[in-house]
Write a structure and sequence with these properties.
Number of strands of chain A: 10
Mean pLDDT of chain A: 92
Structural class of chain A: alpha+beta
CATH superfamily of chain A: Nucleoside Triphosphate Pyrophosphohydrolase
Helix content of chain A: 10-25%
Radius of gyration of chain A: 18 Å
Number of domains of chain A: 1
Oligomer: homodimer
Largest sheet of chain A: 4 strands, mixed
Chain lengths: 184, 184
């Protein structure tokens, strides 16, 4: 397991990344309530399920600041200006795993907590992989961990694998590949 | 489909619910970076997968302010002070679905976006249900929608079902129940 970064300084302050919007709402039954929601930077996010020919999926182990821990999850990132979802997915895949994909397909998009966040992540299935490394902006090298789709429950029971959207995306791809296989 | 609430007013302001913490980090290779993460109110959240005797799971349709839409997802809520995870899960289940559970079991906990959020949701499997309604603080009645665990992929393809942690929890319960069945 990698050594966690050292926290040099921490302070509460106005965010560069997040804004909070307060809304006053009137429901159709006349009840009025005040709600808060988080607005993020308005760019899409992508989550990539890259399946190798042997059926293993590429996970990455990366530092997660929110939990101050190393987390095992799917490669992901924010789209850059002018980039399509599939272009961004392939770029992030190359930066984070050292592989590109000849086949890319968006299978769904997921929210995190729609009750108070607008954030939406596009899930992209990547196949027909080939070695291709792009330099990203990561502060340290990322470890790539291949994982079998047959062992998702045991993955969910690991302390270092907790991200709901990654687990959902892995299960959805498992279902989709099983459907494809049974359709011949 | 219910009629969306009317937005009476919206403004960007300091949050009642969220704080942003800025951290300066030094990675083990010496690289220094600045990160931001969201701190929520420090109480746990619970997500309940309530399985009826006929194998259907109880989803709810509820207004989601983040996406300003009605979302189909698992019942969920915040723990109250002094409440255990299982107590809070049963209370939220009674408030949101009108059922209590004689059997409650935490199966895992999920993060939303560990890269920039510390938020963690405890996933509770609830079985042996009985009718029991508690009044919650919902602004309008919640619709309960039973859903078969056999049809999770089609659930994920609905526009009104997008929450990653709900889909992950449903798949994990499906796996767990299949394991139980095959172990006799």
């Amino acid at each position: 397991m990698p050594k966690l970064p050292e926290i040099l300084k921490r302070e509460i302050k106005q965010s560069q990344l997040f804004k909070v919007e307060q809304l006053e709402l009137r429901f159709s039954n006349g009840v009025e309530r005040r709600y808060e929601r988080l607005l993020g930077r308005v760019v899409g996010a992508v989550l990539i399920v890259a399946v190798r020919d042997d059926g293993q999926v590429l996970l990455i182990r990366e530092y997660a600041c929110g939990t101050h821990s190393y987390e095992l999850a799917l490669p992901k990132g924010r789209l850059e200006a002018g980039e399509s979802i599939l272009e961004g997915a392939n770029r992030e895949l190359m930066e984070e795993t050292g592989f590109g994909a000849r086949s890319l397909q968006e299978i769904t998009s997921l929210t995190l907590a729609p009750g108070y966040m607008a954030h939406r992540t596009h899930v992209v299935l990547a196949r027909d992989l080939y070695p291709k490394k792009l330099e990203g902006d990561e502060p340290e090298p990322i470890e790539v961990v291949p994982w079998s789709l047959e062992h998702l429950y045991s993955l969910s029971q690991r302390e270092d694998c907790s991200e709901g959207r990654s687990l959902a995306a892995l299960y959805l791809v498992r279902d989709l590949l099983q459907q494809e296989a049974s359709n011949g």
